[in-house]
Amino acid sequence: MWRFGWFHTKTDEDFWNRDKSTHYKYCSVWVDNLLYTGHDPIGFFKELMQVGYMFKAIYPPTYLLGVDFKYVKEPEDVITWYDNLN
What we know:
- The protein is mainly beta.
- It has one domain (2-82).
- 12% of the residues lie in helices and 37% in strands.
- The chain contains 1 helix and 7 strands.
- It has one helix at 41-50, and strands spanning 7-8, 15-19, 24-30, 33-37, 63-64, 67-72, 78-82.
- A 4-stranded antiparallel beta sheet has the order 1-2-3-4, with no helix packed on it. Strands 5-6-7 form a 3-stranded antiparallel beta sheet, with no helix packed on it.
- A hairpin with a 6-residue loop joins strand 1 (7-8) and strand 2.
- The termini are far apart.
């Protein structure tokens, strides 16, 4: 990740960020899962594949570590997490 300009946070070595001057990109690593947040997810994964990383599947998250994700259009088009217990 350092090779591509990513730095892990001081509090968690599995949480990486990259400063793009107008915004930040984030990547969380959990065992064999990557959760990327940024403007170009396909470009992020292609960059990793060019240096030999292989992925079983690449798709928008729906569930990770006990948290459900869903796509919402209001107030803007984003993927967000929610508590499905209620």
